[in-house]
Amino acid sequence: MNQPLFRLCAAMILAASVTACGSKAPKPVSELALASSALQNAETSGAREYAPIELRIAREKKVAADQAVAKKKYSRARELTVEARVDAELARAAADAEKSRLALKEAQDNIQMIRDEATRTSIGAQD
Fold it and tell me: Does residue 63 lie in a domain region?
């Protein structure tokens, strides 16, 4: 009675292990597309000018992912594409932050210029 159950369990374990060993990671097509899109978005947002290091790192990882795909190392390629996408998103965010910082500085400089002009005008009016 226990022997058929034992055989069934053994057969299931054997089938699962053969399937696991025989399965090959699929080509990361969608991940590659997402990484390419993220790189394009980063460049469009000005990362080339405002976050060149982050953008370069993302590009290097995308190139490495493409090379891993060519070697059919799909698991490694998937890891690299995810990293490239995240690095590209970081580059875009860094570029956006830098542009915001520069816009804030410009606005603060304009406010200071208006204050200085108002002070000169009020002093001239008192004389």
Answer: yes
Report d(CA 103, CA 88) in Å as an integer. Answer: 23
Task: For residue 34, give every residue at least 6 positions away whose Cβ sits within 8 Å of its Cβ, in sequence order, or none.
Answer: 81, 85
Task: List helix spans (H) across 23-73.
Answer: 29-44, 47-50, 52-70
Q: Provide the domain limits for residue 60.
A: 26-97
d(CA 44, CA 31): 20
Q: Is 89 domain-assigned? A: yes
Q: Does residue 40 form part of some domain?
A: yes
pLDDT tens, position by position, 3-49? 655 555 555 565 555 444 444 789 999 999 999 999 999 999 999 99
Residue 2: helix, strand or coil by DSSP? helix
Dihedral angle sign, alpha carbons of residues 84, 85, 86, 92:
positive
Count of structural domains within the chain: 1
Cα gap 41→29, rounded to integer Å = 18
